[in-house]
Amino acid sequence: MQENGSNAGVMFMTAFNKVVAGVGNRTAALMRMATLGLIQDEDITDDKAGRAIGIKPSAHVKGAAQFAENPLDWVHAVLQPALDAATAGMEGHQKAIRESQLISQMFPDRNAAKFFAELLQQ
Q: What DSSP line would sit under 9-37, residue for residue?
């Protein structure tokens, strides 16, 4: 994260809020996390129209405690396997592009997406 300088803290806190605190997640992001197994469907709070609006207070993103202790370990233990399963059969640049798309769908905030992309590359 050194190359991001002063932005590294913002990137980390944005990612932390989405994974550990479970706040700031958009409807589409929650649904994508659920399809990849990072959130259980029953842990998502819906509004009166049935749209996903958040994570229930008693629930969390898979491995949230691990993320709080060591985000890099969480990326390798939780996020990368989910991405690998979603891109099974793809290789090379096709796999990399699809993984980038999935990251951006789960974490549409550019700071969080950049944080996860950096950790995956490292």
A: HHHHHHHHIIIII--S--HHHHHHHHHTT
Q: Which residue in 32, 16, 6 sits closest to 119, CA to CA?
A: 16
Query: Which structural domain range is residue 25 located in?
Result: 2-121
DSSP sequence for 41-59: GGGEEE-TTS-EEEE-TT-
- Determine the Cα–Cα distance for residues 19 and 38; give it in Å rounded to an integer: 9
Into how many domains does the chain fold? Answer: 1
Confirm if 17 and 107 have CB atoms less than 8 A apart.
Answer: no
> What is the model's pTM?
0.87
CA-CA distance, 50 to 108, in Å (whole number)?
21
pLDDT digits (tens, 9 = 90+) for 34-71: 999 999 988 998 889 988 888 888 788 999 999 999 99
